[in-house]
Amino acid sequence: MAKQSIFGRIAQLAKANINALLDAAEDPQKMLDQMVRDYTDNIREAEAAIAQTIGNLRLLEQDHAEDVKEAAEWGTKALAASNKADEFRAAGDIANADKFDNLAKIALGKQMQSEKEAKAAEPQIAAQTQVVAQLKDGLSKMHAKLDELKTKRDELNARQKTVQAQAQVADALKAFDVMDPTSEVARFEEKVRREEARVMGQQELAASSIDAQFNDLEELGRQSELDARLAALKAQNS
Fold first, then answer.
1. Largest CA distance in the chain
2. What whole-number distance in Å separates Cα of residue 64 and Cα of residue 13?
3. How far apart are CA 12 and CA 78, in angstroms?
4. pTM over 0.70
């Protein structure tokens, strides 16, 4: 995986606006589940790429350390050969003195080559160190974004369960609403009211019949009194 693609993926994921994405989603819960899976997969890929980059940096550092070590060793060998040449020269053995001076020069050449290679690797090591630091920072942001996604998903799931529970309670309460004309209680109440009205009608009708009978009785009494007075009047004139 190229470094540029890694940086691009990290930037894209780290800058994602979760709330805006959820607003545009038909099913936010499913979208969050998918986003968590995608982020987890991308983080796994990024971790593998970053691990490879770190591994390459460590190889460069090991090679640099080896070059530095070899430069020091060749320097020690050059010094030892030079000292030996001086001893032979002091003893008048010019041939061996020149021989060891030549060995000292060869060692110095090796030292210079190792130093050159070590120095050439230093800018690359510095650049790779910076890249690794940036990749680690980006990976940290990806992990933070993944945690944010998981929190948002769990919050949404909890809110959905709460809404479902509230809806169930509301439905249960509605079933026991005695003011609802479609409920069994309301229909039974209406039946009782009709029965009460029927009984009240019967009572009123019975009361009206009794009053009529007493009225007839009073009329008969008045007629009897009239007949008696008429009879008395006729008796006075005879």
1. 211
2. 36
3. 56
4. no
Residue whose C-alpha is closest to residue 135's, from 40, 2, 37: 2
Using only the alpha carbons of the chain, give its radius of gyration: 56
DSSP H/E element including 117? helix 94-175
Q: Which of 122, 119, 174, 139 is nearest to 44 (CA)?
A: 139
Distance CA 215, CA 217 (A): 5
pLDDT at position 107 is: 94
- CA distances 55 to 5, 46, 128, 159, 229, Å, are 18, 14, 11, 45, 144
Q: Are 84 and 101 in contact (CB under 8 A)?
A: no
36: pLDDT confidence band, cut at 50, 70 and 90? confident
